[in-house]
Amino acid sequence: MKLATLNDGSRDGQLVVVSRDLTLALHASAIATRLQQVLDDWNFLSPQLEAVYATLNAGKARHAFAFDPLLCMAPLPRCFEWAAGRGDHPPTAPLHTRSGNAWLGPRADIAPADADAVLRCTPGLAVITGDIERGADATQALAGVRLLMLVGDWTLRRDPAGEPAPAADPPPSHLATAAGPVAATPDELGADWRDGRVRLPLQHRVNECSSGSSDADSRRAASFSLLLAQLAQDRALRAGCVVGSLHTDGPEHDPLHTSDRICIELGTPVGQGLLGRIEQHVGGTAARADIGP
Q: Which CATH superfamily is domain 78-281 in?
């Protein structure tokens, strides 16, 4: 099943079901209006949405409309917790908690308010969870995974002109995080989802959104079961927690400049992104979160 959130002017948007090929969508308002509602009552609401998904894919949905990623917010525009770690195996660094109250949509422009700041974007994958108990082991934690989505994590470093370079690079500041247009249940990946890992390359391109790529091998990334178990070691995770595995190899280490465009998608043997595409333009005067008043 694939779900998305359309920007209707509210903070949490309007939940829609999206067809497997990402061409059609159908409002889910008869079942739930927001993704958080579904996560809170997953066992009751998700089968109803699965039935809508089957109808949509069979071409029998009467009120289906064309799916447009330009209208999408992040699938979960606000979350209770957003934590990310490096994508190495096993996880050797602690997960870092980021702000989860204003995610960027997949087509949102991005720029720092400070013209001297150096922008970078790190691609990754993330899971959205149901409730996971404190002290859950890897197997128990993996059972709490509800959905998968793409992420692009934006950081900046300020390096004022005319000042001497520091002895060591200053730590980056977290600017914003963008999410892909759809969140999919793990079964949508078939055999490419095993042991809490996605067995497909994560493609990250700069200024080449239709050809060329730098692939991060998701098969070498830490299992999400291990990342979730690490996070749940000392506290319970509530439905709506997002945990990411960021990939630290590739062009994200190169500074991004005004007018650059980045694209992130999950590669497949047939070349179609299973989770859609993040495509963002560097420009403007500040990061823009796709939320209402």
A: Fumarylacetoacetase-like, C-terminal domain (3.90.850.10)
